[in-house]
Design brief:
The protein is elongated. By secondary structure, it is an all-alpha fold. It is built from 6 helices and no strands. The longest helix is centred in the first third of the chain and has 37 residues. Helix content is about 70%, strand content about 0%.
Length: about 170
């Protein structure tokens, strides 16, 4: 992979990308926990006493304990499902962006952010200086940011020059 010299429009893309990468492992753990919580909630819903055909489920608390429990569980289910969708989107975006990296860039992002290894471990494992690895990390973060946010995150003039071959690769 050629050296990534593309400038991003705004440092907030870099910061947001770093937050996404740092949140990746927590999202994987959270996703697993939320799915288990959803399974348990489904069992709780099934265990509620049946409502008679004449009973109406309302959008506010009804005063009927069975209906109130059902409404609370349904609301909790919606919240959990929303959290699962957020986690799945974050995980999918990160995995897609990282899968498009190659060589050392992919290794650095995978070991540093996805597996959580220290810089010292990376230096020992990859036989590069820490400064060189951090430089490569910065380039990889830019590539991941473009993978997540698209080319709209790039400084347009710099991107056009890069694509036209006017910048050393």
């Amino acid at each position: 992979m050629a050296r990534l010299t593309t400038k991003l429009k705004d440092e907030s893309y870099i910061d947001a990308t770093k937050r996404l990468l740092k949140g990746y492992r927590a999202a994987k753990i959270s996703l697993s926990g939320r799915k288990k919580e959803l399974e348990n909630l489904a069992e709780d819903l099934v265990s509620l006493p049946a409502l008679s055909c004449g009973d109406k489920v309302q959008t506010s608390l009804s005063g009927n304990p069975t209906e109130d429990d059902a409404l609370e569980l349904i609301e909790k289910k919606k919240e959990i499902e929303s959290g699962i969708r957020r986690d799945e989107i974050l995980i999918e975006r990160v995995e897609r962006a990282v899968s498009n990296l190659s060589g050392i860039y992919k290794d650095i992002i995978t070991m540093r952010y996805i597996k959580g290894y220290s810089w010292r471990y990376l230096v020992d494992k990859m036989n590069y200086s820490e400064r060189r690895l951090r430089d490569k990390n910065d380039e990889a973060i830019k590539a991941v940011a473009i993978g997540i946010y698209g080319y709209g995150a790039c400084d347009e003039d710099n991107l056009i020059s890069l694509l036209m071959g006017e910048i050393e690769a």
